[in-house]
Amino acid sequence: MEATQNTIDFSTLYTNNREWMIRLALRMGLTFTEAEDVVHDTFVNAHDHINPGLRPRGYLRRALTNRIYDRSRMLSRRKAVELDDLTRLADEDAGPSLIDFDECVAIAVSTSSERAEQIEAVMRLRFVEGLTNVEIARELGICREVVAKRLGDALQTIRQKLTREN
Hints:
Radius of gyration: 21 Å
CATH superfamily of the largest domain: Winged helix-like DNA-binding domain superfamily/Winged helix DNA-binding domain
Oligomer: single chain
CATH class of the largest domain: Mainly Alpha
CATH architecture of the largest domain: Orthogonal Bundle
Helix content: over 70%
Low-confidence stretches: 1-6, 93-97
Distance between the termini: 62 Å
């Protein structure tokens, strides 16, 4: 498609803006692969919305930032649902008493003693302090994927133990 005065050549726009947009996404806590995906999605959605009369860089910055915040909110909601599921599992068939946090930690670390301190720290920062995976990763000096893996493994272990007992 040939660029005219009234349309934007998206190939040129992508080439000229991709690098700084990926750097911005990385500074906002995404991995390189996630940053590439979010930048690509931003360009796909921007295709119909960028006004050729305006400077596209400002629009792209706002669109990218909004997309990253939306993604973060979605992941937070997913984690909240997982925690709600965990609480519901503990509450079902167990009467009025809920499983307490220390009990959850004890169950989670029972399968891997070499990572027990890290699992406990990740769970405490996530569920007691309310930090995001990115904040936990910075706090503990580990990558975000490790935080997600530890949380996922811990919740899965707790779910399995609670469903076996019920």
